[in-house]
Design a protein that fits this description.
This protein is an alpha+beta fold. It has one domain. Helices cover about 30% and strands about 30% of the residues. A six-stranded antiparallel beta sheet has the order 1-2-3-6-5-4. A hairpin with a 2-residue loop joins strand 2 and strand 3. It starts with a helix and ends in a 12-residue tail after the last strand.
Length: about 180
């Protein structure tokens, strides 16, 4: 009879916390070490090969048991050791699963941030990702937005889903003139 409470506690504790499927919640501007730590909490592990780090750096899914419906990885771009762009790619061989996953990610994002039509307009003005079928965007702060894209798989990533946290360029009205 003691097995039931132990099994129940194990199942409950396994469901909490951040997972690789949860929306990315990193803030831009953090250093490489902090970014690596935060991505590991999302189940994306940095692979060090001993050579100079490429930019952007790739964080594949951490080793895990079992099968999955697709594959995912994160690309982090740094400028002077500060995170300036973060992209999570997800690849599915089944388009129905890709659409289902996109809807799940959009729904999860909507729980975290209010809808921001102006954010989508600004992302579209910057340029859409190749193969974009649908895109939804949210504002994280005055210059940072997150976009979730449903894609037609296109080389080189051949991804079905993209979640991108980007900094928008400064507008002429944002530049402070010092006299």
């Amino acid at each position: 009879m003691r097995l039931v409470p132990i099994l129940l506690a194990t199942l409950v504790s396994g469901c909490g916390g951040v997972t690789a499927e949860a929306p990315l919640n990193l803030r831009l501007g953090g250093d490489r070490a902090h970014t690596t730590q935060e991505l590991k909490a999302h189940k994306f592990c940095h692979k060090e090969d001993g050579g100079p780090q490429p930019n952007p750096e790739t964080y594949p899914r951490c080793d895990r048991p079992g099968a999955e419906w697709g594959e995912s990885w994160v690309s982090a771009r740094f400028d002077n050791n500060a995170l300036v762009e973060l992209k999570r790619y997800e690849r599915f061989s089944d388009d129905g699963r890709a659409v289902e996953r996109w809807n799940q990610l959009v729904g999860d994002r909507m729980k975290l941030h209010p809808d921001a039509p102006d954010a989508a307009t600004e992302v579209q003005a910057r340029s859409l990702e190749p193969g974009t079928r649908s895109m939804k965007a949210w504002r994280l702060d005055a210059r940072t937005v997150v976009g979730v894209y449903l894609l037609t798989p296109t080389p080189p990533e051949n991804a079905s889903i993209l979640e991108a946290i980007i900094t928008l360029p400064k507008q002429a009205s944002d530049i402070e003139v010092v006299h």
